[in-house]
Amino acid sequence: MPDEPIRLLLAEDDMNLGTLLRDYLMAKGYDTVLYPDGEKAFKGFVREHFDICILDVMMPLKDGFELAREIRRINSNIPIIFLTAKSLKEDVIEGFSIGGDDYITKPFSMEELLYRIEAVLRRTRGGQAAGGKNIFRLGRFTFDANKQTLQHGDQVRKLTTKESELLKLLCNNQNQILERNFALRTIWEDDNYFNARSMDVYITKLRKYLREDPSIEILNIHGKGYKLILDKQPEEDSA
Length: 239
Prior knowledge:
By secondary structure, the chain is of the alpha/beta class. Helix content is 42%, strand content 25%.
């Protein structure tokens, strides 16, 4: 844990559960603020600084998915973990498509929640510290993995943490197969079905971002993974 405590936004309409979670996380060193509905949580997010959000999906006034969309318009990088009683695949996929970093189905243990928080923070805070190449030339694009930006001419797109991590893996394996299970274990730390579907969503997003340059292609390699193909292979710059 850093010297300055991590500030955690917790949105949970079940006040018994919410109070229990808040007290547990506070005891573990997280400066946790509990909000009972999505509207109060959004107002709190705008007013104060937070490092990570834990959002219950089923809340009055504004549900967790809608709240996450509004948070993402303001901050595209803050980690978001969804809590839900739902286990339908469609709900899980929607949560990841919004830009959620993890998804926990109720009931869950306090230890599991703590592990998920720590794992997400390791990825989002420590994932850029390993060194190596951080600036990549992709045809007409420049990708800065440290700043999590994708630039095309004068247009700069801010990427989410997972978009940036996945694109960096593709760049580091340029014109080679990026094995699906390796990418899942590296970014999501688990190669289960839901995480695999989430990665498919992010691959689709990256293809959309890069489509302005027809020389760039992300191929599906059946049964193996993905391959970032560039017609021309410019030199990569180190950060």
